[in-house]
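Re: that chain you flagged

S.,

Sorry for the slow reply, it's been a week of failed gels. I finally had a moment to sit down with the sequence you sent. For the record, here it is as I used it:
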Amino acid sequence: MNVLIVGATGYLGRFLCAEYTRRGNHVTALVRDSGRAGGLADVLIEAEVTRPETLIGVMDSVDLVVSALGITRQTDGLGYREVDFQANLNLLREAEAAGVKRFAYVHVLNADAMAGVPLVDAKTAFVNALQASNMPATVIAPTGYFSDMGEILVMAQRGRVWLFGQGTQRLNPIHGADLAVAIADATEEGRGWIEVGGPDVMTQDEIASAAFAALGTAPRITHLPDALRRAVLAVLPFLPRRMSGPARFFLTALGMDMVAPRFGTRRLTDHFATLAAETVHQPDGAGS
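Prediction finished late last night. Pasting the structure tokens below so you have them in one place:
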């Protein structure tokens, strides 16, 4: 099968390329800069997904498109509407024209409960367009990535983890490699929608404690009033988009449980231990 991975140089995209290759597929990675994508796939194609004219012909003979395309840190002036919605819509329209057999898209868990958050609204708008299309589709809604949990370890390294509320909100984030397996399984099975998380459901307090345990230090966790989180959310829409966009998503997600069916074998505690060991073995100053 010919598989096109979009967003291939991101955290999840690299695992997707590896997993679909492992299963014997011919993998093409659609990237903005091939210099950052060495060894990712059988074929690298450079294109600007925000410019549909650059996509013409790139999906000829492609059977499956998997898009993990989206903004996590806004750095080039583009917004969620331009990338998470319109760029993915450009991909979908080209896939339709090329006769692609299936389009898979990585969404976010609990999107309905996060309506009004620009990142989520843009993703939801694309999902609506995808489901309105005649294109067979798979939508994947993960809880969150291990890479996001690294911020907790960074706070622990600085001596204290700050949490909003009582730290009792529950989540089961998933490693990118496990999520790639779940996505490949879902597309092979022709599933329309899956919600997926990692094998361990933990409270925010338990995740913070696990970070300190990986560092071998006593937990120092401070709970801030949840009213402060809500107050910050009320102010964020008035701040520049580059600053407010990611914060509005993460602060909203922190206020709810993010739990989905458990999948995979990679544990967050082991991930923290690996990150902590890598930090210890870095040359002086490398981790600053």
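What I noticed first: Residues 2-144+175-196 form a domain with the Rossmann fold fold (CATH 3.40.50.720).

Talk soon,
D.
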